[in-house]
């Protein structure tokens, strides 16, 4: 059907809800994301693309991801477990929690027995057993279904059936049969009975454990469009430019001409920075040569007939 442009984005769905509860004339950005694949969100463990039938098979942005590196510059330390075991979020938040795990490649979470921070090996992450308070080591239990974002990410450990609650309900009244949603709370403060410690006004009086649960990233905050970024490479690029710069000043009566050796590295080609190691921020420079040149600096010319 055809509708007036004045009806687009008026909070009413005139075209009718299509598959996966998307409305073409309302959720324009969401509809675009659902129908156009984005390279930076391919194989990030979140399905953004509505299935497309190709050669009789339903394909999405999460199919055939067996050889895709889940811990990359777009997923590293973004607050979401893009790797099944959360390897892309390890060693990211120790300083903000004021807790340093003495072991490498361990998650930081809260012990359900002591209500204190502890270290959890990667092998125990998403293994089907809840080892951490709130089930933070098992995000798949509370993670929303594809296309349906959810802000309920605190898992009750011993509850009849799976129950996930919102952080705003923590330390207010117990919603979990085992009372794990209030067992870590500090009740010595003067907070109105109908309020919650996760209210922004109480941000400065939360304990570190309370703050850990209140400020956890939610699925609803996951960016649906991720743009290309150099990330940590910005500073290292500037440092390398300074290290490889050999300025030659040519005096003339009107000006000084500065020739940057770094910019002249690739003869008639383009310098590219290649990432060697994400954690150590190791990179190298390579040259993208035009068809008529080759060599590590495009210094050789192909024979021409």
UniProtKB/TrEMBL annotation:
Keywords: Disulfide bond. SMART domains: LDLa. Signal peptide: none annotated. SUPFAM superfamilies: LDL receptor-like module. This is EGF-like domain-containing protein. It comes from Rotaria sordida.
């Amino acid at each position: 059907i055809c509708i007036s442009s004045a009806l687009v984005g008026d909070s009413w769905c005139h075209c009718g809800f299509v598959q996966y509860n998307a409305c073409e004339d309302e959720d324009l950005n969401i509809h675009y994301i659902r129908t156009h694949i984005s390279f930076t969100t391919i194989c990030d463990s979140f399905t953004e693309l509505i299935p497309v039938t190709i050669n009789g098979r339903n394909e999405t942005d999460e199919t055939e991801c067996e050889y895709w590196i889940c811990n990359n510059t777009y997923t590293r330390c973004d607050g979401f477990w893009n790797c099944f075991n959360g390897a892309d979020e390890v060693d990211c938040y120790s300083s903000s929690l004021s807790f340093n795990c003495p072991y490498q490649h361990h998650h930081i979470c809260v012990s359900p027995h002591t209500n204190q921070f502890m270290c959890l090996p990667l092998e125990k992450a998403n293994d089907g057993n809840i080892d951490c308070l709130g089930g933070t080591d098992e995000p798949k239990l509370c993670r929303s279904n594809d296309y349906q974002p959810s802000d309920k990410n605190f898992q009750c450990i011993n509850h009849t059936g799976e129950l996930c609650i919102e952080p705003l309900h923590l330390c207010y009244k117990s919603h979990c049969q085992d009372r794990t949603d209030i067992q870590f709370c500090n009740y010595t403060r003067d907070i109105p009975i109908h309020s919650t410690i996760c209210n922004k006004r109480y941000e400065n009086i939360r304990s570190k454990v309370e703050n850990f649960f209140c400020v956890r990233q939610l699925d609803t905050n996951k960016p649906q469009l991720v743009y290309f970024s150099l990330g940590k490479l910005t500073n290292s690029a500037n440092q390398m430019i300074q290290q490889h710069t050999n300025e030659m000043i040519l005096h003339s009566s009107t000006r000084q001409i500065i020739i940057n050796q770094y910019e002249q590295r690739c003869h008639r080609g383009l310098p590219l920075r290649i990432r060697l190691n994400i954690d150590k921020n190791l990179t190298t420079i390579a040259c993208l040569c035009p068809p008529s040149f080759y060599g590590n600096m495009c210094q050789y010319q192909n024979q021409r007939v």
